[in-house]
Amino acid sequence: MKRILVTGATGVLGAALTRELCACGMGVVANFYSNELRAVELQRETNCELLRADCSNEAGVEALFAHQNFDAVVHLAGWNRNALALATSPELWHEILKSHLDSSFLVCRAGLQHLPHGGQILLVSSRVGLQGNIGQSAYASAKAGVLGLMKTAALEGRERGVCVNAVCPGFDPESGGVLSSIQRQKRASEELLPSSDARVTFTAFASWFLRSNSRMSGQILRPDCRI
User: Is residue 100 situated within a structural domain?
Assistant: First the structure.
């Protein structure tokens, strides 16, 4: 049975993916940090394993991978707070980059070190990292950095036989709680598949990708389109 680590598993997309992978018979280790109640509910629902760790902390990530035999990792952990660039303090900037980019680096580095030949690392980025978005300068920069990290890690993982890719999910209104109603409507209208549910498209694509043992690497994947 394939053993998959899902970080940020108590988030909207992380929980949906955990449910889908467990339903497909995968062995899922659901990582969480702050929302213990939601993690326990997810475990009760899916029978997944739980591991608490802060993925933006080096020691936390090392503990996450210690004595574990993962075949694949999906990294979703991270939080965001919107602010125009002019209103973004250096402290907020660094906090958001730490949450998304530092954590992606630490998880990716650990994955390259510990995953077996044939292992898969799937980093979750965002369309915002490709095209930007008003009020999300720090988040967009972090997610763009994830794409650069993925490209480099894919090259470095080639000799180890570990594939590294990034996925840019469609927009999910529940995940965009920090956006205004006008911003949410605008983001939803940008979907390449109108009226698509990001949780459905993301979980279906990620589940298929992991179960297929694809040897694709170094790619930016878009589950909200037909390409």
Answer: yes
Residue ranges making up the domain that contains 43: 3-218
Task: With respect to residue 227, please indicate whether it lies within any of the assigned structural domains.
Answer: no
How many domains, in total, are found in the chain? Answer: 1
- pLDDT by residue (tens digit) across 36-66? 999 999 999 999 999 999 999 999 999 999 9
Distances (CA, A) of 78 to 10, 70, 101, 193: 11, 21, 9, 25
Nearest-5° Cα angle at 125, 196 to 168: 30
* Residue 19 CB contacts under 8 Å (≥ 6 apart), including other chains: 42, 45, 46, 203
Catalytic site residue from 65, 70, 105, 139 = 139
Reported confidence tier of residue 173, pLDDT bands at 50, 70, 90 = low
- The pTM of the full predicted model, rounded to 2 decimals, is 0.88
Provide the CATH number for the domain around residue 55: 3.40.50.720
Q: Is 33 a catalytic residue?
A: no
Residue 195 lies in a domain: yes
Residues in contact with 88: Cβ distance below 8 Å, sequence separation at least 6, in sequence order: 137, 138
Round to whole Å and give the CA distance between 192 and 61. 35
Q: pLDDT per residue over 80-101, tens digit each?
A: 998 899 999 999 999 999 999 9
Task: Evaluate whether residue 225 is within a structural domain.
Answer: no
Taking all residues of the chain, what is their mean pLDDT, rounded to a whole number?
Answer: 90
Sheet holding 49-52, edge to edge: 49-52, 27-32, 3-7, 72-75, 120-124, 163-167, 220-221
Distance CA 223, CA 10 (A): 21
